[in-house]
Write a structure and sequence with these properties.
The protein has about 325 residues and is of the alpha/beta class. The protein contains twelve helices and eleven strands. Helices cover about 40% and strands about 15% of the residues.
Length: about 325
Amino acid sequence: MMSRPSGLPMVVRDPALPTSVQIVEVGPRDGLQNEATTIAPDVKLEFIDRLGAAGLRVVEATSFVNPRWVPQLADAAEVFPAIRQRPGVRYPVLVPNERGLDGAMSAGANEIAVFASATDTFARRNLASTLDGQFEMFAPVVRRARAEGLRVRGYLSMCYGDPWEGAVPPDQVVAAGRRLFDLGVDELSLGDTIGVATAAQVTALLELFGRNGFGPERLAVHFHDTYGQALANTLSAMRSGVRIVDASAGGLGGCPFAGSATGNLATEDLVWMLDGLGIEHGIDLSRLVQTSSWMADHLGRPSPSAVVRALAGSAGADRSEPAKGQ
């Protein structure tokens, strides 16, 4: 593997930015869910373990969803209990309904996420519900999870644009986010599901959440890189005080229910930017690049991450040995 160029990226601190950022690694769930290549459970388990070894402290492991919806994650009940859970690492799982919550709890999960839509069309296509009806579906899930002591995250998709409805009114996004907070979610991740957001739009939406009583300490951001704007949008969010950023190792991902959604923000690209800004994140970039190169081999295609391509080099990474524990 090509080593990182000496002294690069040059560190230049910006006092307007946070001193540390928590990365929520979504590769094993959001990254793999749309892959055509079937990934064996043992490969998923090694992927999750490698990510923990690289320093990720939140690794979204899988989704307890009907396998007819997301066949790639049909093995959740097999994979999750077999994870070698590392001290200090959280392993949340996505659940769509009470049946999914039952499966997650039976497998031993202690942290879940629910996935809502800011638009009616996507709620119908993704959740077989409506903009209003989805919250009725999530209410017993969140209530039961909280009663059992589980941490609950809320995802809100289509926050900046919808392929069927076009531009999404910010007030509509905030109203949907408020309903998730009212249900009892601990944290809300704002998703640019089809990657159409731009930097000033991100700032404006976060300011609107703030004016409605939801500050950046309760919010996370989740950007797709369809138009190459994910890093710019992340920087804009951090300037607004956001300190939790979702990303996917190697830039894996998409949404099986939104054909225009391409890969997530690559964790490696995010780490490179954070390094240059002097922002703490706790990730070993070399180990992460090695992991993403190894997974790219299993998927049979190169990683879309610019940093993985730059650091892996034409000779490829050393993918023969799993990352050792720490």
